[in-house]
Write a structure and sequence with these properties.
Elements: H1 2-23, E1 32-44, E2 47-58, H2 61-80, E3 88-101, E4 108-122, H3 127-144, E5 148-155, H4 160-185, E6 189-200, E7 206-207, E8 228-241
Antiparallel strand pairs: 1-8, 2-4, 2-5, 3-4, 5-7, 6-8
Helix pairs in contact: 2-3
């Protein structure tokens, strides 16, 4: 009885599986043409994010912290004094790092470094005013006590219009490719069964500057080229064919 039961059970399970698969057709059961399109559009940067810092060192923590606070306050006041419309400032990084003498056994703290970074943001400017304002702010920061320009990052405040254009171009490219494939293969496009998009992240280039050792006059600020940003979009289309 046991030997007769096992094959009957196996056949029953196979029939059930076949019936289930027949009721649920998947994408690969259909004839499809799958294509992709990619487009990249360029846009003029209209905004900037700048990080300036005051770094002080010394043996006495209280004295070093006090010196740093005074210089940082001077930097902030000098930049605000430029009266640039829409200017935003905030503290982005503050740290105190002990400086150790590793030749001593055990190592001893020989001093401290205080690092206070201020982030400056300007948004929605025309190219020439943006370049001019960034250059002036760097000059003022150096002149009033900053000794590090950590980075300058340019970007586009509102990318919606560029993304829309990139979507149009990448979709049209995917459609054209599907038509070309169908014509070459002698088949007809029936309908779109899948349409998806995916933005492709392009890292924003950061301009790195070191201000240590530079002159402290405003004229020490370098000429600034704000450049352009790229928006890249990819679209995938699956067409059912007949």
């Amino acid at each position: 009885m046991k030997r007769a039961f096992i094959p009957v059970l196996t056949v029953s399970l196979l029939l059930m599986a076949h019936s289930t698969l027949a009721q649920c057709p998947s994408a690969w059961d259909r004839n499809l043409i799958i294509t992709q399109g990619m487009a990249e559009v360029m846009g003029q940067n209209d905004s900037a994010r700048i990080s300036v810092a005051v770094v002080t060192q010394g043996r006495n923590l209280e004295q070093v912290s006090s010196e740093n606070a005074g210089k940082t306050k001077s930097v902030i006041q000098a930049i605000k004094g430029l009266s640039i419309k829409g200017l935003k400032l905030k503290t982005s990084n503050y740290r105190v790092t002990p400086q150790r003498d590793y030749k001593a056994r055990p190592p001893k703290i020989k001093g401290y470094e205080v690092h206070n970074a201020i982030e400056i943001t300007l948004e929605g400017f025309e190219p020439e005013p943006l370049s001019k304002n960034v250059s002036m702010m760097i000059g003022k920061a150096l002149e009033s006590g900053s000794n590090n320009i950590n980075h300058i990052q340019f970007y586009i405040k509102n990318k919606a219009a560029l993304e829309k254009e990139a979507l149009k171009q990448s979709t049209q490219q995917a459609l054209d490719r599907a038509r070309t494939l169908a014509e070459a293969a002698g088949v007809k496009l029936k309908r779109i069964v899948s349409l998806s998009t995916q933005p492709i992240h392009i890292p924003t280039r950061q301009h790195m500057l070191r201000a240590a050792g530079m002159k402290t006059e405003a004229s020490a600020a370098p000429p600034i080229e704000i450049g352009e940003s790229r928006i890249r979009v990819q679209v995938s289309i699956a067409y059912e064919i007949e």
